[in-house]
Amino acid sequence: MVLQYVSLARVALAGALAAALAGCSVAPAPQQASRPVPSAPEPVARLSSDQAVRNFDAVVRRVEPVAESECRARTRGLDCDFLIQVDTRPGQPVNAFHTLDAEGRPLIVFTVAMIAEARNQDELAFVMGHEAAHHIAGHLVQTQRNAGLGAVVFGTLASLATSGASDAVRQATVEQALQAGALVGARTYSKENELEADALGTVIAARAGFDPLRGALFFSRLPDPGDQFLGSHPPNAARFETVRQVAATL
Ligand SMILES: [Zn+2]
Asked: What separation in Å is there between the alpha carbon of 98 and the centre of ligand 1?
């Protein structure tokens, strides 16, 4: 399905983005000496909230169908009907993650700060492709098996599952999924899984018409490890190299 996140009220997203963009608190302070940036950096100026919303719209429209078709081509019996959501709770960090809802449907969640931090559509597309790739590659399942967290996550989600759920219940389910994602999706992938997601994310972003190399530059602006999004992530140099190698084959 396309553009379901619009149900969260585009006006609310625009307002939240305006608030996020008004402050500088999430802007990273890059360490110039250690930045493995492969090419000229993007302009550092942030986008307007209107532009950020338009960019996100455009990226969802183009990346979601490609992610779903790649998912169906590469898997058997997996739910490939991605639902793209925006976490509009105030104060959430720059983050995006993949998780599953109560019915096992794959969610890709962007925080408002993440949308605000991206400087162009290529960056949003690369991150969206990366998160979709975690689902296609079965990383969440592997992670839960490895960490023994599956029962906790799905127990919580299942308790909220009702047939014909009201919007309120559905939203509550998403909130639970957000928490599950914060617990599972954002922290415990291995570095190998991250590089695999970068590789497949490169394919998805490119096939959706975006530039994955330009998109991967997003990571050059993020604070280095310690941040929950990056805590388990490989060094940027390894990620850029993976993206470069895969992009060269497309
Ligand atoms: Zn990842």
From this structure: 8
